[in-house]
């Protein structure tokens, strides 16, 4: 019984070991195919180019799928004489067995003639560093005419002239902007013109009040306010002198509002109608300056005296009507005219 069992057991063990060995070899082969070497190759479309022309450099990489790598020595220039003009997008394709192929095109250019060698590309992938092959490139110079062939400048060509040739460039380029601005300005001018157009009023105009009456009305209001009785002497004399200054400006055209007391007295003394009353004006101005600037408090009699002199000055310088013709000549009422500027102004305003 034992003799029959032992041979069958040995046969089973041999069979099992054979399958294990086959499986190990298969796994080893799969692992070897999954981790293959990285292949890097470069080539040129043409190894000869004219100076200044361009050619294409092809870069092919074969590596395991999904593995990341990068170049170490690819920049804007490949050598001192060869420039990298443009780098195309990498094109990746699956070649089976867990491998992929990456292709990229580089446009290069050279401007100096000569024979150059493009150095190997250095590619790092994981722990591997791969270098490509060298590439020779011959740059052929461009033939030019020798100095024996000398050409003169070409003659000028008369192309005729147009109206726009005499217009400045900024007007020729932006004429439409200038036209729009001119139209806008014209429109605004028309609107302003019609808005400012005078409208004839059908209502009768009020007769202007003569300067004499305005001054007397202002003096009456000042007296009724009783500023001195309430201790406001400074305000009283300020108002009193302003009434007289306004009267001089409206009655005689003396710009008294912008003058000092001394300047006012000079103008009053020179005028024929105000010269007889210049003493009254001088006393009023002196008292007003003492109160306003020297802070002198006048007596009640001084306040009354100043007001009386101001009233007298206005009364003495008011317009006087003079007869023009003899009333007995035609039996009509006596005609009168004024010898002052205010009456002429009033008559013109009434017209």
Helix content: 40-55%
Regions with pLDDT < 50 over 5+ consecutive residues? 1-10, 24-34, 328-351
Mean pLDDT: 78
User: Which term fits the overall shape?
Assistant: elongated
Radius of gyration: 59 Å
What's the β-strand tally? 13
Query: Mind describing the biggest β-sheet?
Result: 5 strands, antiparallel
Number of helices: 10
The sequence of SSEs as H and E is: HEEEEEEEEEEEHHHHHHHEHEH
N→C terminal distance: 164 Å
Number of domains: 3
Give the helix/strand class: alpha+beta
Strand content of the residues, in percent?
Answer: 15-25%
Folded structure, characterized:
The chain is elongated. α4 packs antiparallel against α8, α6 packs antiparallel against α7 and α7 packs antiparallel against α8. The chain is 43% helix and 21% strand. The protein has 351 residues and is of the alpha+beta class. The strands form 4 sheets. Strands 1, 3, 5, 6 and 7 form a 5-stranded antiparallel beta sheet that branches. The chain has 3 domains: 102 residues, Immunoglobulins (Immunoglobulin-like, Sandwich); 34 residues; 110 residues, no CATH class. It contains 10 helices and 13 strands. β6 and β7 form a beta hairpin. The relative contact order is 0.07.
């Amino acid at each position: 019984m034992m003799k029959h069992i032992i041979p069958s057991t040995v046969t089973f063990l041999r069979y099992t070991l054979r399958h294990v060995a086959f499986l190990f070899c298969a796994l080893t082969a799969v692992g070897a195919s999954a981790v293959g070497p990285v292949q890097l190759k470069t080539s040129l479309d043409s190894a000869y180019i004219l100076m200044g022309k361009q050619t294409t450099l092809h870069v092919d990489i074969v590596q395991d799928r999904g593995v990341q790598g990068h170049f170490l020595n690819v920049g804007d220039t490949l050598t001192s004489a060869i420039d990298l003009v443009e780098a195309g997008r990498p094109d990746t394709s699956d070649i089976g067995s867990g491998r992929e192929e990456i292709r990229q095109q580089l446009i290069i250019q050279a401007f100096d003639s000569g024979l150059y060698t493009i150095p190997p590309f250095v590619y790092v992938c994981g722990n591997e560093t791969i270098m490509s092959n060298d590439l020779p490139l011959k740059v052929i110079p461009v033939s030019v005419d020798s100095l024996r062939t000398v050409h003169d400048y070409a003659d000028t060509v008369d192309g005729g002239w147009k109206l726009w040739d005499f217009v400045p460039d900024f007007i020729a380029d932006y004429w439409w902007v200038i036209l729009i601005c001119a139209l806008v300005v014209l429109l605004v001018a028309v609107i302003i013109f019609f808005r400012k157009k005078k409208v004839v009023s059908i209502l009768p105009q009020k007769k202007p009040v003569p300067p004499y009456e305005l001054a007397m009305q202002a003096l009456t209001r000042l007296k009724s306010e009783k500023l001195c009785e309430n201790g406001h002497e400074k305000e009283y004399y300020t108002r009193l002198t302003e009434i007289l200054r306004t009267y001089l400006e409206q009655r005689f055209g003396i710009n008294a509002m912008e003058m000092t007391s001394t300047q006012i007295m000079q103008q009053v003394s020179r005028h024929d109608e105000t010269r007889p009353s210049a003493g009254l004006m001088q006393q009023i101005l002196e008292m007003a300056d003492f109160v306003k600037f020297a802070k002198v408090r006048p007596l009640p009699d001084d306040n009354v005296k100043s007001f009386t002199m101001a009233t007298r000055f206005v009364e003495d310088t008011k317009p006087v009507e003079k007869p023009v013709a003899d009333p007995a000549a035609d039996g009509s009422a006596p005609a009168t005219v004024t010898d002052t500027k205010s009456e002429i102004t009033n008559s013109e305003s009434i017209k």
